[in-house]
Amino acid sequence: MPRPFATPRLALPLLVAGSIAAGSCAAIPGVGGGGPSQQIDTVVVMAYNIRHGEGTDGEIDLRRIARVIEAHDPDFVTLQEVDRGTDRVDGDDQARTLGSLTGLHHAFGRFMDYDDGEYGMAVLSRWPIVSVTNERLPDGDEPRTALKVRVRSPDSDQEIVIAGVHFYRTDEERLAQADRLIETLADETRPVILAGDFNSTPDDAVIDRFAGEWDILSKGRDRLTFPSTDPREEIDYVMVRPARRFYALEHRVIDEPLASDHRPLIAELIIRP
């Protein structure tokens, strides 16, 4: 089962949250056991399966997706089910378009060729992108990758990794994909935010695999993400590692039933050095 952040670890950031704007850098006296002040970054992260921009009304509308993103002013967005150049989206490079509409840097990770174009996922980032790695995961019914984007804070200069995932399809395939991803991130020394569509409910073995090494943020009572019109399953998650580098100020599901068949997640995190 997912392990939510413990209440004592939330106490300090809750006291300072009102004075720290998302995406900013601040000094918090006493962080780290009463020693010298340390600089920290606060960030807003969104995870959103956008179904190539097709809403529950059957309309493909990336501007509608962009409005959902802009309404929550995230620093990072992991996007699943993103097209580049396919016929079904009239040749649009959706990662680039959403980056342009939201004013964020973008990176695209290809899963496979599809419909005269490419199908995969993307990451949007307010912070400058240092490097992009599209890590191949074990294939299942469809090819899959993990899109890892290393970014640098313009305020503190600390670097973190944003990893987007979209596991698929059977339990066996998803477990193999999870194991490979955990293996590829095992030696990563920077703080990592892992977010996306895991296609796994909290009691699945896939989520249990991550629970040993990752903090899986609790969404509270309203935790269901799919389908967006009448959510019945929790299959989208935000996870972080190592726990000591993060404080969760907020994590919740956004009530958005129209723009896609998944509801997006939003998390506000403090990342300390």
Automatic annotation (TrEMBL):
Q: Which residues form the signal peptide?
A: 1-26
Please verify whether the record's keywords include Lyase: no
Taxonomically, the superkingdom here is Bacteria
Q: Determine if Nucleus is one of this entry's keywords.
A: no
- GO molecular function terms here? endonuclease activity
The alphabetical list of record keywords is: Endonuclease, Hydrolase, Nuclease, Signal
What positions does the domain Endonuclease/exonuclease/phosphatase occupy?
Answer: 46-262
A Pfam match is Exo_endo_phos
InterPro entries for this protein:
Endo/exonu/phosph_ase_sf, Endo/exonuclease/phosphatase, GPI-anchor_lipid_remodeler
Q: Which PANTHER family match?
A: CALCOFLUOR WHITE HYPERSENSITIVE PROTEIN PRECURSOR, ENDONUCLEASE_EXONUCLEASE_PHOSPHATASE DOMAIN-CONTAINING PROTEIN
Protein name per the record: Endonuclease/exonuclease/phosphatase family protein
* Species in which this protein is naturally found: Gaopeijia maritima
